Amino acid sequence: MNVLQRMRANSTLKGPIFIPTTLLAVAVVVFCAFFPEQANIRLSAIKQMFFDNFSWFYILAGSIFFLFLIFLCVSRLGDIRLGADSDEPEYSFVSWIAMLFAAGMGIGLMYFGVAEPILHYLNPIHQDLNQSDLIKEAMITTFYHWGIHAWAIYAVIALALAYFGFRYKLPLTIRSGFYPLLKSRISGFWGHLIDTIALCSTIFGLITSLGYGALQVNAGFNALGVIDSNSFGTLAVLVIIAMTLAVISAVSGVGKGIKMLSETNLILAGILLVFVIIAGPTLQLFSGLTENLGYYFSSLLEISFRTFAYEPEQQGWLSGWTVLYWAWWASWAPFVGLFIARISKGRTIREFILGVLFVPSLFNILWMTTFGGSAIWIDQQTGGELAAISGNTEQLLFGFFEHLPFTTFSSVMALIIISIFFITSADSGILVLNNIASQGEQKVPKWQSVYWGVLLTVLGLSLSYSGGLASLQTMTLIIALPFMLIMLVLCIGLWQGLMIDAQYFNKEFSQGSANWTGKNWKERLEKIVNPTDRKDIRRFLNKVARPAFSELVTEFENHGLIAQMNFIDGKNPKIEFEVINENLRNFLYGIECQSRKLSDLVVDDANVPNIDESKIYEPITYFIDGRQGYDVQYMTKEELIADVLKQYERFMNLAMDNTHNLITADVENITE
């Protein structure tokens, strides 16, 4: 057996997912590497077409995800647990919150922490603002892009993965979220298509983030004087070195080492954050954070649906910022969502949504306020020195540090943080790619991790070669559109699963079995395993219900009450016991033959005997007040009499209370 045969034999990759993804990646690599100018022109045209026609869709979808999660949070569905009802959270609340902080950090915050507020400040949406409103608008717009909406996109995927993975015991893959809609077909064409789009989305989202990271690492080395080049060759060397380290980490299985590295990086980022707060305009930052939070939350609904439909001159701004962000978040959703899902087992949906939406968002807002607010203040104090280098976005962070004490220290720390984020993001990304392409398999051969590392490197460099960061953004934008459609349908599947879950776990024992003892258990077992038909129901009405109601009529009349029994024959026979009242509504306890469709799973199960028909018939109670009835087929005559008396006792208790007169009064007598 040669090397290729051994690799194929040990592979966990699923061909219907892996092959289309690889073919698309190879096609993009070939096109961008051999025809860079044409690729740049075509990708630019496609990006503009998407901006012109689908910008509204990205905005609407992001807002739908946010509102959908808020509705789940405040509804009774929020009580459902991600796992069995008895499952406890695997991590303490503090540890879980800390890991959500880690998920909220990344290359993006390092790259845009200074850059985005400065760029919005220098190039505002509306030009007729005074200085204070310019700052406020810049910060609120940044919060919008990095706040709750971004995490709502992540949370939809994470919630679906956690819910269907831990509650339904399905694999932690995107297709599992479509189980209520597709049933067993998630293992076929549609399931493969969903995972293929998710895999492609994750790939292009990863290389976009890694592209930002590589540019900023290069800018950091330039700022420190280590290298003096911004060429594509220098960038390629940095990417290859970082990806090599990520692949070594992925294949070595040093999970604990990466975990410790990530936690260390989070501590370093926290130290850097505190340093900037102290070294910057401290009091102004705290005051600004308080005011900006209030402004952000008060205007959240308005900006959520902002598409500038009546301000066409702003369409370019919307496309270049918000739409690209929403596409980026969607492409990262499988990556971040899988991480969040894995650490959230045992939490309730309400706790999950509140934690995922607000904890990382608030931290991101704190980060952006600290770095962005300080940068705007420094730019004002220095007469626009940061504005002068705003054309080179990746240099803004290190240019910002030049105006703070301990410039070299802070720049080196920032460079270390960015580098570690680059490596750990790539390592985690390889893990997610293996997970999606292998349909949730946890143990994968090492060569697969090498393959994904090489693919990410080659694909990222080829796109950068043809058009730089713009080409990476375009591919993310393209693949995010179908994935956002998938996410919207996923919300429907999640809703259906939750509704069925609520009905299933709230289903109580039937009234007929509530007081069972061991007496007559064989006869009752026979009824359970043998589906009933109309003849069985007619027999029950004649042999159990009729004698029971007849005795009740006699006994009620002995107590001076007017009672009667009504038998209505027909295709679906029914029988009633009625107590006639004057001012009150009549008391009615009826039983009618009703049909119920059986689950196909039961009908087709060879190990469930005696069930060949798709429909069964049951004797179901009904009442004059329209309450929902229940099955009484397992009751004996005495048990049925007891059930009628129980309902009559409830009726009389309600009738004796003036509070319920509107329902208990005889409406027919009133209208007469």
Polypeptide structure, described:
It is found in: Cell membrane. The chain crosses the membrane at residues 12-36, 56-74, 94-114, 143-166, 187-212, 232-254, 266-286, 323-341, 353-378, 412-437, 449-468, 474-495. The protein has helices at residues 3-10, 15-34, 36-74, 93-104, 107-122, 131-146, 148-166, 179-182, 189-224, 232-252, 255-279, 282-298, 300-304, 315-342, 349-381, 385-388, 396-401, 407-437, 446-467, 469-505, 521-529, 534-558, 600-603, 637-655, 661-664, 667-671, and strands at residues 562-568, 574-580, 587-597, 615-623. The chain is mainly α. It has 2 domains: 12-503, Amino acid/polyamine transporter I (Up-down Bundle); 521-671, no CATH class.
Task: Set out the fold topology.
Layout: H1 3-10, H2 15-34, H3 36-74, H4 93-104, H5 107-122, H6 131-146, H7 148-166, H8 179-182, H9 189-224, H10 232-252, H11 255-279, H12 282-298, H13 300-304, H14 315-342, H15 349-381, H16 385-388, H17 396-401, H18 407-437, H19 446-467, H20 469-505, H21 521-529, H22 534-558, E1 562-568, E2 574-580, E3 587-597, H23 600-603, E4 615-623, H24 637-655, H25 661-664, H26 667-671
Antiparallel strand pairs: 1-2, 2-3, 3-4
Helix pairs in contact: 2-3, 2-9, 2-19, 3-7, 3-14, 3-15, 3-19, 3-20, 4-15, 5-6, 5-15, 6-7, 6-12, 6-15, 7-14, 7-15, 7-20, 9-10, 9-14, 9-18, 9-19, 9-20, 10-18, 10-19, 11-18, 12-15, 14-20, 18-19, 19-20, 22-24
Subcellular location: Cell membrane
Protein name: Choline/glycine/proline betaine transport protein
Family: Belongs to the BCCT transporter (TC 2.A.15) family.
